[in-house]
Design a protein that fits this description.
By secondary structure, this protein is an alpha/beta fold. Helices cover 47% and strands 15% of the residues. It has eleven helices and nine strands. α3 runs antiparallel to α10 and α5 crosses α10.
């Protein structure tokens, strides 16, 4: 477990909270691993009937911690790209428990793409969603190239994934991947209310119905693995190296 993430079971709901406010909840390899373990360990626990993922007040996640991410992604050019981020993505694809997300503030990169693995998404009025992969010379991940067009349509997906355009909470609700938009001070209470509503339903009927309406895990993982291969290739490309160099220079400036 990592100090930057907490896991708490309250009744039948397991809440996973990102807590690294000094870095806008930017995800490290340790955080990815802790999240995947929290999801995987719930699968055979009948007492856990719903998962809730959220961030500390005012932020969901700024996406990858770039220094940690680059170190993991370029460690050995001779080997396939493997990281704890991939473990989380596979955990999301294989997850059989209803998954609720509560998003306040920024949701960047994987902070947005992971939401398409959720069953119910609440956003505060302050939430924003961006996927700036192409701006860094990279490609989409988390099976988002498969899931996002399916949910919001090709044109919106192109504007989001390729052009990197930002969506507000209301944009996201109109696009169809956010269920409800509430004020920031109401977000946690509303998310827990939704989780309790799900937990009160017949568990087996929920599990079967969820499986029927979701894309098969094998299909998602196949796309994730393709994206990961291309992502790793792009990460070492001249285009991406220059994009990262320019980005980090702007941050330091």
């Amino acid at each position: 477990m990592t100090d930057h993430l907490t896991v708490a079971d309250d009744g039948a709901t397991r809440t996973i909270t990102l807590h690294r406010p000094e870095k806008k909840n930017a995800l490290t390899q340790g955080m990815y691993l802790a999240m995947s373990e929290a999801i995987n360990s719930a699968q055979d626990d009948a007492a856990i009937r719903c998962l809730l993922v959220t961030g500390c007040p005012g932020m969901f996640t700024a996406g990858n911690d770039l220094e940690d991410f680059l170190k993991a992604g370029t460690a050995d050019p001779g080997k396939p790209r493997e990281s704890n981020a991939i473990k989380l993505l596979h955990a999301l694809a294989n997850n059989a428990k209803p998954l609720v997300a509560a998003v306040d503030g920024i949701a960047v990169g994987v902070g947005t793409t992971m939401l398409f693995h959720c069953d119910y998404v609440l956003a505060s009025t302050a939430a924003t969603f961006t996927t700036p992969f192409i701006h860094l010379g990279l490609v989409p991940e988390a099976a988002s190239s498969l899931l996002i067009p399916r949910v919001i349509g090709h044109q919106r997906a192109f504007a989001t994934l390729v052009m990197g355009r930002r969506l507000t909470a209301r944009d996201a609700r109109e696009a169809g991947f956010v269920n409800d938009v509430v004020e920031p001070d109401q977000l946690e209470a509303e998310a827990r209310k939704v989780a309790r509503e799900i937990c009160a339903l017949p568990a087996e009927a929920v599990a079967i119905s969820r499986k029927l309406i979701r894309m098969q895990p094998e299909v998602m993982i196949e796309r994730m693995n393709l994206e990961s291969k291309l992502f790793g290739e792009r990460l070492r490309s001249e285009e991406a190296v220059n994009a990262f160099r320019n980005f980090l220079a702007r941050k330091k400036g």
